[in-house]
Amino acid sequence: MNSSIKGEVRREFGKVQGGVGDLTGDTKIQADGRANEAAGTVEKLADKAKDVIGDAAGSASDLAREAYDKGERYAREMRDRFPDAERYWREGSQAVRHQVGESPVVVALLAGLVGLVIGWLIFHQSSDTQRNHHRR
After folding, report:
1. Could you list the residue range(s) of the whole structural domain that residue 50 is in?
2. For residue 3, which of 44, 62, 59, 49 has the smallest C-alpha distance?
3. Contact 41, 84 (CB under 8 A)
4. Is position 127 within any domain?
5. Per the structure, how many domains does the chain have?
C-alpha cells in the first residue's frame, strides 16, 4: 500500500477515533484520534511532495538530455557545413600554446592590456551615458 493511501486510511481512522473519544468523553482517545488524523495528513502530503519532486527531477533530466542532443546535433551540422573549422581551431590552439610556451610574460602583458582596453571601453561608455543622462 503506498504512503498516500496509508495516510488517507490513518487520517480517516483518526477522525473516527477522535469522534469516539468525543462521544465517550475520553480525552486520551480524543488526543490519539487527533494525532492519527494529523499524522495521516502529513503522510499523505509527504507522498504528494515526493511525487512532485520525482516528476520535476524527471522533467529536468528530460530537458537536459534534449539540450545535450540538440547541442550535439548543432555541432555535427557545423562540422558538416564548415569541415575546415575543426582543423583551423586545432592549428590556432597549437599556435597559441606555442607562443605562450616561448614567451609567457609577453602573452600575460598582452592579455592584461586587452583587459585594460575592454575595461576602459566599458567604463568610458557608461560614463558617457551618465553624462548624457545628467544633461537632459
Report:
1. 3-81
2. 44
3. no
4. no
5. 1
Q: Which H or E element spans position 116?
A: helix 104-135
In a domain, 45, yes or no: yes
What does the alpha-carbon distance between residue 49 and residue 42 come to, in Å, rounded to a whole number? 10
Q: Which residues, 6+ apart, have CB-to-CB distance to 86 below 8 Å?
A: 79
Q: pLDDT for 10-61, tens place per residue?
A: 888 888 888 888 889 988 988 988 998 898 888 888 888 888 888 888 888 8
0.70 exceeded by pTM: no
Q: Which segments of 3-103 does DSSP mark as H helices, in order?
A: 3-24, 27-81, 85-102
One-letter amino acid at 131 equals: R
Q: Does 18 fall in a domain?
A: yes
